[in-house]
Amino acid sequence: MALKITEECINCDVCEPECPNNAIYQGDEIYEIDPDKCTECVGHYDEPQCQQVCPVDCIIVDPEHQETKEQLMQKFLKLTGGN
Description:
The protein has a two-stranded antiparallel sheet with strand order 1-4. It has a two-stranded antiparallel ribbon with strand order 2-3. Helix content is 20%, strand content 14%. By secondary structure, it is an alpha+beta fold.
């Protein structure tokens, strides 16, 4: 499942640099996550790094983009050129 940032985001800028897939970007009002790039850090870390650093816990699982760990690993491999 890709993650998403809720409207509780305070634009503190700590999540964006932590994303190894460059999936987090500044949207019109708050930071947003590109679901095509988000692997929940599968392939990079044991836990999503953005969730670890978010001071307001506004990064949640996106119910509109549900994926298994295997699908997230396949996305990671595609994004990193690992097949």
